[in-house]
Amino acid sequence: CPGLGPTSLLNRVARRLSTTRSRVIRDAVRSYQQHLDREALRQRIRTASLKTRKQALDASADFDAANADGL
Hints:
With 71 residues, this protein is an all-alpha fold. The protein has helices spanning 6-17, 21-68. The protein starts with 5 loop residues before the first helix and ends with a helix. 0% of the residues are buried.
């Protein structure tokens, strides 16, 4: 909402949700923490995927080398 200060915005959201400003803040912080946790998990999965992909490529290269030897 352009032109609204943080307090006005907080009051507006609290009224819209029929709750307290404290509740809005608690829920927002909890939501942001969940977002950070999901992003951290996404990064761990990405890192593991890249590592696994490299291991698979290395294994494939080893098999290709063995096949080239006539085994």
